[in-house]
Amino acid sequence: MKNLLNYFVWPVLAGLSFALTLLMAPWLTAHIPVLASFKAEATPNAASASLAPVSYSAAIKKAAPAVVSINSLNQVAHTRLRPSLLLPYLVRETQIGQSNSLGSGVIISKDGYIVTSYHVFFGDDPNSITSLPQITVTLNDGEELAADLVQLDTRHDLALIKVNKDNLPFLTLSDRNKLNIGDVVLAIGNPHNIGQSVSSGIVSALWRKDDSFTIQTDAAINPGNSGGALIDVNGDLLGINSSIVSESGGSEGISFAIDAGQAIKLLQELREEYASSGSSGYLGVTTDVAISTMLKNSGELIQGFHVKAVTPKGPADRAGMQDGDLIIAVGDQKIHFANLKDPTESQREIAKISNLPSFKLVMLTVYREGGAKNPGQFLQIPVILGKGTPTMIDTQSDEPKKPAAAPNTKG
After folding, report:
1. Which residues pair with 393 in a beta bridge?
2. Domain finish residue from 253, 275, 297
3. Which helix (H) or strand (E) holds 102?
4. Phi, psi of 256, rounded to the nearest 5 degrees
5. What is the C-alpha end-to-end distance of the chain, expressed in Å?
6. 227 and 93 in one domain?
């Protein structure tokens, strides 16, 4: 009998007592102050553990509708120099073809403004582009829309395009002051034209310069991701995916995104220009002399306007023009002087730029001299004309003055 109590009855009674205690725990917690305070202290830790993120689907659902695919069709020219029969000159030969480029974009306003990368349209060699791109945007729901380039920023590798559609989903900026190395980020885009895709990683480094920064991440970025969104875990916009470091051409874990604040600033500048006075096409350069010269390597005669200064943050500056450039053509219209000493000749040629409407995308042909050992080069520079009041430079005094009734030398 004693053995029965030791090995059976007492263990059963102990188990029943423990079970009864567990069942009465809520009642005991509510009526015993010490246990109530213990529960209050323990609850936050349990809640925070249960709220740890296990999925980023909410962020993706928020951001994905505002990320689009972009197709740009360009006409390109490949130029080479071959020996001429009239030695020692070289002859330029040009072959024309078509090129398709694919990328991604981010809608940043409900009225159809989309930011993407400059190189999606003009590649690493905009000099080869001979015509303005034909742009098609594919929304997340599959709808295709034509788009126009409205603003360029080569310094930050950004471009702003516009589609004619309202009430679009758009992304808002994340608080970049709270961004730290090690934060989780998500990249959304159209890699290799396979459709919208998401990759995740962390912020590997932050490269700050002046009023902006570049975000380095190990999130997988591949060709076609350019111009897409880099977002935080809340679905807010951090950056515009721009470039990768790769020996193979694919993602190797070192990717860069441009601070999205620069994209918003680009849109603000555009809207400020729309609201500014003046109606002429504004290039944003000051020219001092008209030039006609013979190139040493080819014997080719070129004529144009020498750029004395590029206005900071103006259209020409954003497009990558430099002081000292020689503007020799606007679109397919070459600058030509029958008489360099006739002022009306200069005014007539400048009219090819200043008579164009504001916000028009034009392709300028520029000759840029090289160094002592490097020959000069011809560049095709796409520029979106701004809005402003032209002025004219008096080549005798170098002081700006308003033209009487004709166009100007400050586009």
Report:
1. 400
2. 275
3. strand 90-107
4. -130, 145
5. 112
6. yes
Residue located via tokens 């991701």 = 225
**Same structural domain, 207 and 66:** yes
One-letter amino acid identity for 338? A
Single-letter code of the amino acid located at 104: S
* Residues β-bridged to residue 129: 76
In Å, how far are 124, 140, 170, 187, 280 from 143, measured between CA atoms?
29, 7, 16, 22, 35
Residue 400, both tokens: 């700006």
118, 159 in Cβ contact below 8 A?
A: yes
Instruction: Mark which of 245, 275, 305 sits at the end of a domain.
Output: 275
Q: Kindly provide the residue ranges of all beta strands, DSSP E only, lying in 108-217, ordered along the sequence.
A: 113-116, 134-138, 144-153, 158-163, 184-189, 197-209, 212-217
Average pLDDT over residues 269-287: 75
Q: Which residues are catalytic?
A: 119, 157, 226
Q: What is the span of the domain harbouring residue 384?
A: 280-401
Kind and range of the H or E run holding 149 = strand 144-153
Give CA–CA dist 261/213, Å, rounded.
9
Query: Can you tell me the distance from the alpha carbon of 121 to that of 100, in angstroms, rounded to the nearest whole number?
Result: 9
Considering the entire predicted model, what is its pTM? 0.70
Instruction: Lowest mean pLDDT of 173-182, 250-259, 328-337, name the range.
Output: 250-259
Report the alpha-carbon distance of residue 387 to residue 165 in Å, rounded.
24
Phi/psi for 7 (5° steps) reads -100, -10
Residue type, 156: H
What is the C-alpha separation between 187 and 199, in angstroms, rounded?
5
pLDDT digits (tens, 9 = 90+) for 200-222: 999 999 987 766 778 999 888 88
Question: Does 155 share its domain with 67?
Answer: yes
Q: Supply the DSSP symbol for 132.
A: P
